[in-house]
Automatic annotation (TrEMBL):
<dbReference type="GO" id="GO:0005975">
    <property type="term" value="P:carbohydrate metabolic process"/>
</dbReference>
<dbReference type="GO" id="GO:0001681">
    <property type="term" value="F:sialate O-acetylesterase activity"/>
</dbReference>
<protein>
    <recommendedName>
        <fullName>Sialate O-acetylesterase domain-containing protein</fullName>
    </recommendedName>
</protein>
<feature type="domain" description="Sialate O-acetylesterase">
    <location>
        <begin position="283"/>
        <end position="398"/>
    </location>
</feature>
<keyword id="KW-0378">Hydrolase</keyword>
<dbReference type="Pfam" id="PF03629">
    <property type="entry name" value="SASA"/>
</dbReference>
<dbReference type="InterPro" id="IPR005181">
    <property type="entry name" value="SASA"/>
</dbReference>
<feature type="domain" description="Sialate O-acetylesterase">
    <location>
        <begin position="106"/>
        <end position="208"/>
    </location>
</feature>
<dbReference type="InterPro" id="IPR036514">
    <property type="entry name" value="SGNH_hydro_sf"/>
</dbReference>
<dbReference type="InterPro" id="IPR008979">
    <property type="entry name" value="Galactose-bd-like_sf"/>
</dbReference>
<dbReference type="InterPro" id="IPR039329">
    <property type="entry name" value="SIAE"/>
</dbReference>
Length: 664
């Protein structure tokens, strides 16, 4: 008898679900939280053209409208005062859905890669954090890892309270939790946290396509994504062209086969953007799109390790992400606060690769409104890419929100930031903002990780002393300072901080040299050949974006004694080229180079002749003035007749960049 009752109940639930008229996204479920102080929206579907009614426990009366031909509907409404115990109801002639235990307060989206994804359960707190959480007025919504080529409408998630008795709490973002905890302690209103992060993810798959619009430096990436996204005109055109070629080949193949001939391979299927957390698309479609439009206060973000090779270009990728999210939320005022990634040894990688990315993170604030960054190099672990202390991460992010969004003027949330350099008596005087009255050494010891360069561009270890809110830098090997850099190493843990105890991050006073030119670096999208190929593992790295002089990241020729030798780069199409930049490392015997360019191999025109100094790294920039170019040729007419670490007949090129506008 008991078994029969259970079966009947299960059957009733399944049938009711199957014939339910109203569908609501998971984010509109029991225990949800509304954003106070701004218009909220709820959306869903029901039977086509059905009449839909919205009512709530805090608004007298009801709102009524008809669903569209696809059954879609939405209601916009003002929220109640901050608090708990509210409810709302959606009703049609054949169905009714109530959402109970609704709160109203502050809602934030917490996103990024593993350092945001790391849970309180894995937080190595000697007090066992996961078992000590008891904040029932903080509501959590944890979106599982998913990726999709097309936009999804829902996620498998539900709201729950931040209490240790609920096992889901232990798997929630530790950084997000500490952010929400700090806000709750200061605001004393319900806090909603949406965890949508994935360890190892790049920034690109989180970015909606609309975010790339108008960012010239990312136009090639935008084009590639458009051509691989169903529903775009570019995708349709690309597939139509492929299918037409496929049909032509198929007819020809059938005729050849019937005649007893050999059937050649058909046209290759077009290359498509990778779908996944490490690809070009995917996580936005599956983990952000389902909640976009939900009324929120803003975003916090902790990501960058997977994009560390991007250098300064990351600033524009961050801009695309932020402006894209704001556009799909239809709210261009949403704040975006993020964490500069921490020092880490990263194996044998170029020590300057990480600070270049960190500089890009810093610069993102300059080109994207209402963004701010926190620095965490004072409590990191260079042997662990996941700094275990997530409490100060969340608290520093909360400090930005409290000061900038909630009017807590007494909060001092900013790290000291380099502002300018003056040269006085052979010393560099550096000025900083956000010192809060003074600069200091965190451990009371002399300042560390300062370097200085003269006209030759070679940096040497320097001494630095504090003078109020300035730092005076000197170096016995540099009499006329041209540039100073700080913490410019992947494992740097410097000790400079401000009066609020917040650390300074990496910087270089010649930052403009790192900012990529306007337009696109076309070289990585082309192909190249060397007249004297290298058979010992130096036959790559010419256009990989790395200027490091290392096998795999630096290109070398073979060691034939016959000169001249040349490299020919094919951009695959005629493009408008503004600049050609290439360089040699501080080893090898590269000397005289002529630079040619043109629309075809037979019409190359000499643009420049360059000479590199012996055993000195150098870069050369050749202005092309928007000329239409497909081929770039570097001709090595002569070499130094002495060794510099390798046989003198090797020619080394650290990198080749071609900046301009891609073909339509």
């Amino acid at each position: 008898m008991k078994t029969g009752k259970i079966f009947v109940l299960f059957f009733f639930i399944c049938v009711s679900a199957a014939f339910s008229d109203i569908w609501l996204p998971a984010v509109f479920s029991d225990g949800m939280i509304l954003q106070r102080g701004k218009e909220n929206v709820i959306w869903g579907t029901c039977d086509k053209a059905s009449e839909v009614e919205f009512s709530s426990s805090w608004i007298s009366g009801k709102m009524v409208k008809k669903a569209d031909r696809q059954g879609r509907w939405e209601f916009r409404f003002l929220p109640p005062q901050a608090g708990e115990g509210y409810s709302l109801t959606i009703k049609t002639p054949s169905d009714k859905r109530a959402v109970n235990n609704v709160s109203c307060g502050e809602v934030w989206v917490c996103s990024g890669q593993s350092n945001m994804d790391t849970s309180s359960n894995s937080y190595p707190d000697k007090y066992n954090l996961a078992k000590k959480i008891d904040l029932p007025r903080v509501k959590m919504f944890h979106i599982p890892h998913r990726a999709s080529r097309t936009a999804q409408e829902d996620v498998e998630a539900e709201w729950f309270k931040a209490v240790s008795s609920d096992p889901r709490t232990a798997n929630f973002s530790a950084a997000g939790y500490f952010f929400g905890k700090k806000l709750y302690e200061q605001l004393n209103v319900p806090i909603g946290l949406i965890h949508s992060a994935w360890g190892g993810s790049r920034i690109e798959p989180w970015t909606p396509l609309c975010g790339y619009e108008g960012i010239d430096r990312l136009s090639m990436l935008e084009k590639f994504i458009k051509e691989g996204t169903p529903g775009t005109a570019e995708y349709k055109e690309r597939m139509q062209n492929y299918l037409a070629k496929r049909k032509t080949w198929l007819r020809s193949a059938e005729e050849t086969l019937a005649e007893g001939g050999f059937v050649s391979p058909g046209p290759v299927f077009p290359e498509m953007p990778d779908v996944g957390h490490k690809g070009e698309i995917g996580t936005y479609n599956a983990m952000i799109h389902p909640i976009e439009g939900l009324a929120i206060k803003g975003f916090i973000w902790y990501q960058g390790e997977a994009n560390r090779r991007d250098g300064m270009l990351y600033a524009w990728k961050k801009k695309a992400l932020v402006e894209g999210w704001r556009e799909v939320w239809d709210d261009y005022t949403l704040p975006f606060y993020y964490v500069q990634i921490a020092p880490f040894k990263y194996g044998s990688e170029d020590p300057s690769m990480l600070p270049r990315l960190q500089a890009g993170q810093e610069y993102a604030q300059e080109i994207t409104d209402n963004t701010a960054m926190v620095i965490v190099n004072d409590f990191t672990t260079i042997n662990d890419i996941h700094p275990p202390q997530k409490r100060p991460v969340g608290q520093r992010l909360a400090g930005l929100a409290l000061r900038r969004d909630y009017g807590f003027e007494e909060v001092q949330p900013y790290s000291p930031s380099y502002e300018s350099m003056e040269v006085e008596n052979g010393k560099a005087v550096l000025s900083f903002t956000h010192t809060y009255g003074k600069l200091k050494s965190r451990n009371g010891k002399p300042l560390t990780h300062f370097e200085m360069a003269g006209k030759d561009g070679h940096f040497h270890k320097a001494e630095a002393v504090i003078d109020g809110d300035e730092v005076i830098v000197s170096c016995g090997k540099v009499s006329k300072p041209e540039a100073v850099r700080f913490a410019w190493h992947k494992t740097a843990e410097p000790n400079l901080e401000n009066a609020a105890g917040l650390p300074a991050g990496p910087f270089t006073t010649n930052l403009e040299e790192l900012i990529p030119p306007e337009g696109v670096n076309l070289a990585p999208h082309g192909s190249w050949k060397c007249s004297d190929p290298n058979p010992w593992g130096w036959n790559s790295g010419l256009t990989d974006g790395s200027w490091r002089g290392k096998r795999g990241e630096c290109m070398a020729s073979g060691k034939s004694e016959n000169f001249p030798k040349h490299i020919l780069l094919d951009l695959e199409d005629v493009c408008q080229v503004d600049k050609i930049i290439f360089g040699a490392p501080d080893f090898g015997s590269t000397k005289d180079v002529d630079v040619y360019a043109g629309k075809s191999k037979s019409s190359l025109r000499k643009l420049s002749s360059e000479t590199f100094s012996f055993k000195q790294a150098g870069r050369r920039t050749i202005q092309a003035g928007g000329e239409e170019i497909r081929f770039v040729k570097l001709v090595f007419t002569d070499n130094y007749k002495k060794k510099a670490g390798y046989d003198e007949n090797f020619i080394f090129v650290s990198e080749l960049e071609v900046w301009g506008t891609p073909a339509e």
